[in-house]
Design goal:
With 260 residues, this protein is mostly beta strands. The protein folds into two domains: 138 residues; 82 residues, Sandwich (Immunoglobulin-like). The chain is 3% helix and 49% strand. The protein has one helix and 18 strands. The strands form three sheets. Strands 1, 2, 3, 4, 5, 6, 7, 8, 9, 10 and 11 form an eleven-stranded mixed β-sheet that branches. A four-stranded antiparallel β-sheet has the order 15-14-17-18, with helices on one face. A hairpin with an 8-residue loop joins strand 12 and strand 13. The longest helix is centred in the middle third of the chain and has 8 residues. It starts with 23 loop residues before the first strand and ends with a strand.
Length: 260
């Protein structure tokens, strides 16, 4: 059993020993140009045995900062400063909560640590569509606030695990799709436009939540030379970020979907 993890505040960042080899991601939020001591931190990591919900052995709830600057990740409805998740076997979306106390320009930074070779990490702004591929040196998104603001689900992480030989073959046959409306209002249907895919005669779609749990699968439809149009219902879905996997023959496409 791993030791309990400490809480994280801007003055008490999560301490890691040099022997800690778990795949993990350090996130920080602060005004552009601010020193480390004035930033807020959150952490996401993988560990065998960790679950999808809140577990005191692996996770730590977010403690609110008096200055109003806060960064956390979501596990269901819980805001976490440290979020331990099981070893990923498929693409997973990790929603973030960002709070800023006043108008200004802020920097949301991410630094991967000990991430397995082949893992693809992307930091996404769902409002602007901007995506930052996080290499070994990390990356950042700039955001402008006109007043004190809280954003839930606008920013999120795409964590795609190292590909197996079969997944690599599918990735080589990946295809582009169009999804609208984006973002979608809860209860509306998503329209997914799929182009013709060589060797594929049918197309289907599977919707997952941010923790990789399958929610629904749309029946396969014929895929003609002119392509196909799929409809995916969002009825009963809570606001948040979801993952849509579209399958056509041996090819696959994975897209993030935001429901408001």
């Amino acid at each position: 059993m791993p030791p309990a993890l400490p809480s994280v505040t801007s003055s008490n960042p999560f301490s890691r020993g040099t022997s800690d080899t778990r795949p993990q991601l350090q996130l920080s939020l602060g005004q552009s140009g601010s020193p480390v001591a004035e930033r807020d931190f959150a952490y996401v990591y993988e560990e065998a045995g960790a679950g999808l919900g809140l577990d005191a052995r692996y996770d730590a709830r977010k403690l609110h900062n008096p200055n109003g600057l806060e960064l956390s990740s979501l596990a269901a409805t819980e805001e976490l400063s440290i979020n331990g998740l099981p070893l990923f076997t498929q693409p997973t979306v990790i929603p973030l909560v960002v709070r800023v106390p006043s108008a200004g320009t802020y920097l949301l930074q991410a630094e991967p640590l000990n991430v397995l070779t082949g893992t693809r990490l992307t930091l996404v702004d769902g409002q602007t569509g901007q995506q930052v591929l996080l290499t070994n040196t990390g990356g950042a998104l700039a955001l402008v606030a006109n007043s004190a603001s809280t954003w839930r689900n606008r920013f999120y992480l795409n964590w795609e695990p190292s590909a197996t030989p079969l997944e690599t073959a599918k990735a080589l046959g990946a295809f582009n799709v169009e999804i609208y409306p984006a973002p979608a209002k809860a209860g509306t249907d998503l329209t997914v436009l799929v182009p013709a895919v060589a060797g594929a005669h049918q197309v289907s779609a599977i919707l997952y939540n941010s923790l990789g749990q399958q929610l629904r699968q749309e029946p396969a439809q014929p895929l003609a030379q002119a392509g196909a149009s799929l409809r995916v219902s969002t009825r009963g879905l809570a606001p948040g970020v979801y993952v849509l996997r579209i399958l056509a023959g041996k090819a696959t496409a994975v897209r993030s979907v935001i429901v408001e």
